[in-house]
Amino acid sequence: MSQLFVKMARKISAGWVLDADIEGFFDNINHKWLLEHVCMDKLILKRWLKCGVIDKAGLAATVAGTPQGGVISPALANWTLNGLEAGLTEHFIGKWGTVRTNKLKLGVIRYADDFVITADSKELLENEVVPWLESFLAERGLRLSRSKTRVVHIDDGFDFLGWNFRKYSGKLLIKPSKKNVKAFYDELRRVVRSMATATQEDLIRALNPKLMGWTAYHSPVVAKETFSRIDALLYWRLVRWAKRRHPRKKKDDIRKKYWRTVEDRNWVFAVNAAKKDGAEDVLELYSLSSTPILRHLKIKGEFNPYDPKDEAYLEETLQTRMKRKAVFFKRWARLYLDQQGKCPVCGFELTEEADVHHIVYKVNGGSEALSNKVLVHPTCHRQIHSLGLKVVKPAPV
Question: What phi and psi values does residue 344 have, to the nearest 5 degrees?
């Protein structure tokens, strides 16, 4: 999403997009090609590919492809399409040279088996890129779906990974796609209908994870209007749910039973419920429109999670992302108290700018547990990585 914004947001950016769709991707991946080109233990890879699939209590052999939804399928998809962007660029450099190729505004944005290719003209995509792409895929036992693959202009927009990318008066806006929104609301409607006789508490507990997960996915894009619309649609769906449970009650009585005022918010669908410790608390339906819009923090392209030189950058990025979440401050406070407010490197008092350092580096398998973290001054943090210092976690008092 962020890479597409980088590639297409400016006025001089590429204006045309090849919205590619591979026909039966996971069903047709060529096993022979994978075994010859993927750099890993060939025996393990072969066992993954040839292990078969159990369906309806029967074992089916896997002659080609890999089960969609399998734990290894995303990795196989990435390995299969690795080299797409580099190969496309090399093809045009070899044909037209570096200077002309740079002017074509070519770009490949890929997530597993979903990808789009940008360029400065429709003719380039149809006459040059598509034939090369078909050859690239044919080596791997794949082919484009003619009915679903299309070339579109950014002013007309296109859907990718559940979002719609489109320029309005020259400004690129990324919104939840209509298809994705409809599928989500249909799922909410199904849940409410299936729980017609359930308690209000059970209904809220069934809906909240879905609401939180969907909004978390779309929170980096222009989604406030969509969130408010889903809130309104869900409200009327819940009104119908409540009226069906109490057909003889007055509307005001139903409202008082299921909706209440919480702080400065009215019409909150909520109920008193017991917490894990037994104490009573108010359980309320998650409000989509209350979700803050926070732009995605993009990882730099040359970042390597297995390179110790990038450990400092990884820690900085993780900390920046975690600061957006309330749980970060609880963990920060816990570390501060365990260390008695002192930096384990210099011994001086910690400040609000303190960094979180992983004792065992993430690249070496270090976990996100608090036992593997310490708070250090930003200057001390830089010294740890530049001088290779070892940090010992202070014993809590």
Answer: -70, -10
Residue 213 identity: G
CA torsion angle for 188, 191, 196, 198 (degrees, to 10)? -120
- Cα–Cα distance measured from residue 209 to residue 183, given in angstroms and rounded to the nearest whole number: 16
- As a three-state string, the secondary structure of the chain is CHHHHHHHCCCCCCCEEEEECECCHHHHCCHHHHHHHCCCCHHHHHHHHHCCEEECCEEECCCCCCCCCCCCHHHHHHHHHCCHHHHHHHHHHHHHCHHHHHHCCCEEEEECCEEEEEECCHHHHHHHHHHHHHHHHHCCCCCECCCCCEEEECCCCEEECCEEEEEECCEEEEEECHHHHHHHHHHHHHHHHHCCCCCHHHHHHHHHHHHHHHHHHHCCCCCHHHHHHHHHHHHHHHHHHHHHHCCCCCHHHHHHHHEEEECCEEEEEEEEEECCCCCEEEEECCCHHHCCCCCCCCCCCCCCCCCHHHHHHHHHHHHHHHCCCHHHHHHHHHHHHHCCCECCCCCCECCCCCEEEECCCHHHCCCCCHHHEEEECHHHHHHHHHHCCCCCCCCCC
Note the pTM of the prediction, 2 decimals: 0.81
By CB atoms closer than 10 A (0-12, 13-18, 19+), residue 203 is: buried
- Kindly state the tokens that stand for 7: 């590639």
Q: Consecutive sets of 10 residues in the chain, 397 residues long: mean pLDDT of each? A: 85 92 86 88 85 74 70 83 92 93 92 90 95 94 91 95 94 95 97 94 96 94 95 96 92 92 90 82 92 84 80 81 73 87 90 88 86 91 89 75
Planar angle of CA 76, 77, 80, nearest 5 degrees: 85
Q: Residue 99: what pLDDT?
A: 93
**Which residues, 6 or more positions from 397, have their beta carbon under 8 angstroms from its beta carbon?**
340
- Residue reference for tokens 């006789």: 197
Question: If 0-12 CB within 10 Å is exposed, 13-18 middle and 19+ buried, where does residue 309 land?
Answer: exposed
Residues 366 and 372: beta-carbon distance below 8 Å = yes
Q: Which residues contact 317 (CB under 8 A, 6 or more apart)?
A: 297, 299
Give the distance between the most distant pair of CA atoms in the chain: 78
Tokens standing for 52?
């078969």
pLDDT in tens, 293-346: 888 878 887 888 778 888 888 888 877 777 777 677 788 888 888 888 899 999
